[in-house]
Amino acid sequence: MMAASDASTPGALDGLFVLDLSRILAGPTATQMLGDLGATVIKVENPKTGGDDTRGWGPNYAKGLDGQPTDLSAYFMCANRNKQSIAVDLSTEDGQDTIRQLAARADVVIENYKPGGLTKYGLDHQTLCAAHPGLVYCSISGFGQTGPNRDQPGYDLMAQGYGGIMSLTGAPDGAPMKVGVGIADVMCGMYATIGILAALRHRDATGEGQHIDLSLVDAQMAWLINEGCNFLTSGQVPERRGNAHPNIVPYDAFEASDGHVLVAVGNDAQFVRFCDAVGASELGADPRFATNLLRIENRTTLIPALRMQLATLTKDDILTRLRAAKVPCGPIHDVAEALGSDQARARGTVVDVPRDDVADGAVQLLANPLKFSATPVRYRRPPPRFGQDTDAVLATLASQKKQD
Questions:
Q1: pLDDT digit string (tens) for 10-37?
Q2: Alpha-helical regions (H) of 149-261
Q3: Theoretical Cys-Cys bridge with 163: which of 138, 220, 280, 328, CB 3.0 to 4.6 Å?
Q4: Choice among 20, 52, 107, 185 that is catalytic
């Protein structure tokens, strides 16, 4: 387990001020990344609803000193460290004034309201960017600020369905299947982070801020990657293949006598070594399987033969043989095995972030995977309780207002 890093270590984004009007996962993923890199992030939460929706997405919560669940759900904590939480009602004049004061000092505003949803409060990108020309304002929505579906709600499940990834996920003879985590939200948040950093680079060079319009569906279609380009090149609609690969054979999960293993044969030489290692040399010498293209064409013949052979071996036997033959292979871990592995421990994949009002004195989080040589990721703040920083932030605003 990795302990929280020294807060005094400089971060790459030290001095950057981010006003976070987003909730659930896509926006919070982006702002957590910026916070991890050193930015000051003020998370605005709605007092009428008890804050970010995910605070109530149980059943897993950090327990308080009294042993009772807090408002720190596991879901909320996964995307909200390194932030300060303030409770502000945007529907009131005082709340709107608070947001305007914060926006005046911000480098970045990020929101995920429905398109046009902030206009009635005077907090939309056109209003704030006109008042603050250097502001980078990022809007995240389900379908974007334009197009016939702009007013449709944006949820990860809907984005995966509309954007095509569900049609590629699942068993060939099964139903379309979503990815096991909110990957459309997460990847949208990553695109948002890249866009914000690029816009800040432009701002620093020219003084000009800008509006970033990003949608879950646009981002999801962008990461169709090879399958999207397979369709654009061939005109053939890709199909579900389970764990198999559309362009590489064999590249799949195989059943051993005591479980499953993964095999990823990347070239023709590896294929021959693979067959020799598992006792199927005749397949490696068969001209029908001599090249990857031929193996793709003859997939329905090759794969059943390989499955029959591998089913006679144990998982450890297969992995030992293939590693010795330098053929890419690996186990299929559950989450406990993955996070408890020697590799995860060596890389600090889990981090303890102190919080004195929870039962264990700290919350365990998934660490940021970025490893910097000069400006390391810092875990300065645990995920906040709802509105815990309201008084301190408003006092600072009042003090700054007097100075202005």
A1: 899 999 999 999 999 999 999 999 999 9
A2: 156-163, 165-168, 183-206, 216-222, 225-234
A3: 220
A4: 185
